[in-house]
Structures are given as C-alpha cells and as structure tokens.
Amino acid sequence: MPNPLPASQALASLVNHLTTAIVLVNARMEIVALNLAAENLFRVSQHQMQLEPIGNLLSLDPLLKQQLEHSSSHQQSFTSRDTQIQQPNGHTLLVDLTVTAVDEQGSLALEIQPLERMKRLTQEARMMTQQHASSNLVRNLAHEIKNPLGGIRGAAQLLQRELTPSLHEFTEIIISEADRLRDLVDRLLGPQRQTQKQACNIHQILDKIDQLLRAEADSQVVLIRDYDPSLPELLIDANQMTQAFLNVGLNALQALLEHHIDGGQIRLKTRAVRRFTIGNTCHRLVCCISIIDNGPGIPTDLKEEIFFPLVTHRPQGTGLGLSISQSLVQQHQGLIECNSKKGHTCFNIYLPMENLP
Known about the structure:
Layout: H1 7-15, E1 21-25, E2 31-34, H2 36-42, H3 46-49, H4 62-74, E3 78-86, E4 92-101, E5 108-114, H5 115-162, H6 168-189, E6 198-200, H7 202-217, E7 222-226, E8 234-236, H8 238-258, E9 265-278, E10 281-293, H9 321-331, E11 335-341, E12 344-352
Parallel strand pairs: 7-9
Antiparallel strand pairs: 1-2, 1-5, 3-4, 4-5, 6-8, 9-10, 10-12, 11-12
Helix pairs in contact: 5-6, 7-8, 8-9
C-alpha cells in the first residue's frame, strides 16, 4: 500500500482550487505552498517562494509573528480581523487573517481574505444599480427630446424657403444647433448596434488607440505600450472595444494637456489575471487592459459618479464618454474600474477569457 501524502501536500492540492488566498508554512515559518489565489494576490509564483521565509512574502509585525510562532508550537488556531499586512514592496493590504494548525509538526495554513476585494464587489454592485437607474432616466428623457427636435429642424427648413437669403444665417443656426442636439441625444441613448464578436488581437486594437492618441498629443505626451505578449486572441467586438478604450484614453490625454503636465505619460498595459470576480461570476482567467496616466487625478467629489451620464468636471466635456465605455464593456460581460489620485489615474478594463475562439 503506497504511503499517504504528507498533510501539507494533500492540503496544498485541495486548496489550489479555492478563491481564498492560502499560504502553507512549516514550523520554521518557511513557505511550503501557495494556492493560485495567493499567487494572484501577491503576484508571485509558488516556485519563486518555495521554502522562502514568510517574511519575504509578508512583512509581519512583531506581535503577529509571535502569534504565528505560538500557534505553530501549540497547534492552536486564531483569526485576526481587519489586519494590515505589508508586503516587502511596501504595498499594504487590509485583510481578515485566519491561521489554522495543520499537523503536529507545526505546519500552519494562513487563509488571507482581502477586504479590498469585498469592498470592491459591494461598490461594483452599488455602482451598477445606480448607473442602470441613471441610464434609464436619461434614455427616457432623450427619447422625449428627440421628437420635438425633429419638428424644430423641419420647421426651420420650411421657414428658410420663405425668407430672403440675407436671413438664412439665422435659420442655419437653428438647423445646426438642432443637429448638434440630435447628435448629443443619440450619444445619450448609447450604442444601438448589436455586438458582433469575433476573434481579435487586443494589442492590435490598442496599437490603433496608441496611434490616435499620438496624433492628438503632438509630442506633448509620451505614449508607452506595456503588453503581455502571451495573451491569446479574445472574442470581442473590435469596433466597440476601440470606442471604449479611446474614450478613456482621450480623457487621460485631455487631462494632461489641459493641466500642462510636464513629462505627461499615458501607459497602455495588458495582463492576464487569474480567478477574478465580475458580478456574481468568478472567472478562471480575465484579460486586464489598463490605461494609466500621471495627470492631476479625478476630483474626490466625482470619483463615485464618473460613469454616470452627463457627469464631467471639464468645461467642454459632455460627460458621456465614460458612460458609453462602461455600457460597451458591460455588453462584453466585463468590468471597468478606476483608481485615481494626484499623479496617477488608472482605468482597468477586465474582459473574461473563458470563451476564447
């Protein structure tokens, strides 16, 4: 009869499919195993961290280190709520930490539940509910505006036929302004075309965005491409995704130009992310497209509302670009998020990769 697997190996095999980050350490506080969720959370691989001191993954404060050592020596478990743990790179995570004694040799399983993720899911659900209600209100209002606009434009054309040419400039103003309002209403109503998905190279789309932004920037802003070449083709509507990315990119560019940022940069970045939750679905793999700028940041009072229609802090802005981008991303069962502070604004667009061609 073959020898059973050591408890540490058996546990590592079982927890590898959990969405909670699990780190397995031995009595010497060396890392024995990480599950996939932990690899994704800390941006490391199990091979990199094998038998490395836990301090190389988490900078433990003296009290928490003492608790771990006591738990290992006495085979006792404990839970620490709302705990701040710091990584060697300086990044701080707010987590719920549960430590469980695994065997009599002093091995421990560290279960790490990032509270930022729970906050993000709650915020996402609230934002989508508010955005849906706001969009419905705006669309209903837009429909009511569109019909009289057509009547105004038609009446102006008829009136123009009866007036002398010297007065045509006034009817032309009415007609052009009616056309401008019609275009605005069409944008308020959002994308009307059905999504037409096909296999696309996401980097070819971003290359097009790069070219368009470079032409608009006129050497005043540096464009940087930071691609993951291992990403496969995605099943998406290339035209819609081009529009979604371009709206975000143009916002970044305009912020840099309007505020005359020295050394302005926009970075187009792609990465694969494992086990990422969008809505109620945990996806095995998603593509993350990041558009990052070093501009002035989004005003604090607008951060919660930037995806709502007609919300903008720019005098010449319509407040529709991000709302349209969000609608297009949602049609792809994706998610768009924003993190912003002075000197760093990052829009992350997540697209599921399960339905690959």
